[in-house]
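Re: duplicated header lines in exported structure tokens

Our pipeline writes sequence and tokens for each protein into one text file. With two proteins the header for the second block appears twice in some exports. Here is an export where it did not happen, for reference. First protein block:
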Amino acid sequence: IAQSYKVEEIYRNFTNNEINIKTVHLTVKHLELIKPKTIKINEVIKFATLNGMATVQKGAHVLLEAIKILDKKGLSNKFQLYIYGGLLPTLKEELKQFRNIFYYGPYKINELNNLLENVDVGIVPSIWEEAFGYVGLEFLAKGIPIIGNKKGGIVDYTVENLTGWINKSSSAKELAEIMERIIRNPSIIEDYNKKILYNRKDFIKSMDLHVEEMDNLYEEAINIAKKE
């Protein structure tokens, strides 16, 4: 059982397609605590990341460089960035120069619903192959569109013209370009929000449904073994 299509691809490469592999998108119980919202955009766009600046691998430098690019273009007064979770220690002082960047530190799972209430767009800037990346699902559970790098399982739920925007190069330059397009055309956030809410069940799976899904898979495997 693979957690995402990228993980399935990796498994197949390692096993030379000699075993039966199926992708099953996993879930986590706390998604049920996150209540979807309807987004109404004001003048200042509010971006957020969940642990996206915790490490280099999670995308800390990618996000910082994108902020710098937008600042040089004079767009800092058009958006805010909320950083939740970890923060790479070496970036702490540098971020203080930006008045539109807010660091909130660690959070508890049961706080997510309220934290995301103030967010318009989520950013998942990982530069490594995320097996799946639950932070993206946490944004989607709230109805928030996401900018996701083309890495690992992130693209399984980051769908162009439906749930968000894909940073195909996973670079700061392309991230800044996507953010700028959103800043200059904010109504697209509300359009994506409506699409996410309408299709939410396709991305957010309840734990009960997932247990049933896994139970069926084990039953299928047992039946195959019996025939052998």
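Second protein block, exported in the same file:
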Amino acid sequence: MPILTSRPKTSQLLSHVGPLHRQVYERLQTTIRQGQLQAGQRLPSTRALAAELGVSRNTVMAAFEQLIAEGYLEGQAGSGTFVTQGFPKAPAAASPSAPGAGLSRRGGDILNAGRPRLNPDGAARPFEAGVPAIDAGLLRLWWRLIQKSWKKGPPPLGYQDPAGYLPLRRAIAVYLAVARGVRCEPEQIVITSGAQQGLDLAARLLTDQGDAVWMEDPGYGGARTAFEAAGARVIPIPVDREGLVVAEGLRRMPMARLAYVTPSHQFPVGATMPLTRRLELLKWAREADAWIVEDDYDSEYRFSSRPLPALQGLDDSARVVYIGTFSKVMFPGLRLGYVVVPGNVAESFAAGRAVGDRQSPWLEQAALTEFLREGHFGRHVRRMRSDYRERAEALVDAARKKLDGRLDVRMPETGLHVTGWLREGESDVLVSQRAARAGVSAMPLSRSAILSCPPGLVLGYAGYTPEKIRLAVDGLASALRA
């Protein structure tokens, strides 16, 4: 029984991609898998099929041999070649399913956490938050340090300590002691692939299924997703001008297992937690035998004074896990961060790191070590702090001139973003959608809320020049007027 009822040209049958015998093989395999040739059906002779396809007999024979070896066909002496008996029928074509269909509830939550909005060239759109400036001078220096590290000698090719490259951990410990007031030994540091992996480690190692976790509301969605994915029960705690309201946490869930906070620059509203509130939080953790996860994601960029010391430096009860990252200080493609943990759980965090993805690349860790040791990191932060202040001022000035009071944007004290407040009763989701159609990414504040919050837009400014910021404010103005 011939496969084809007529004899079209070879160009109509084969793809012209790869050797001819492979093209014949792929065509026959597809025909069998789709059910056009059914179990037990006899194929034409190799001579007849070669003539039908316009190829040599040897080409067809090579394709048959491969299909027989893989179990699609079987040869019967004196009778010919047949589709293997019992070959399953092709399933009915599945209808297109919605994004995320078939995922677990946890998988759906992760999908809904969202991804950055990018332009067609892959660049982030203004005002995507958490995007630093990519400094050309930094990249040239980084490439030099990569080469320098490589030339020092052959890199280690075996498995390394999952806690990270020890010279890098030593350099981080020195930096944190001087710049952030963190008290730790290198052995308390675990290198991670950015802050998000640090949050995932903390969630998996410090909470059990159903444990209550205080979460800032509004707060960082990536942290909430990490704790919910670990099975924790998130308890929303409101945020005021001094950060997480500890008294409200004590009222809602006094015996929570853990509190997640961003005390130096609350995400997303920008509050700074004062000393009295920090001491109050530490007192609760000590008395409740609870953990505090301190996410210090962008506090290096404080404009009004020196960066505030970390909460971890005030901790005398070994209750604080401190998380930091180099991705926002340098560039997002550098997937290196760190977790500073109390000494009694350091080995457990290293083991948890090994379960995730074993270790970070050695070469990048070695180059970052030199970057810290040679003082480049501090100089880079000082230079970018000046640039980011200029960009924040450009955003605030443009908003004052062009937004007609519809969005209250005030000069931030710290960080890479600012929250602009809409008038009461306006929908930040609707404004965000209109801004997106104008090519502007302005995350609605309500996306960060668990319960509710005033309407606002989270505007990142660090990764965009003053000129791009002014143009993006024009797009935001049109969205607000609409």
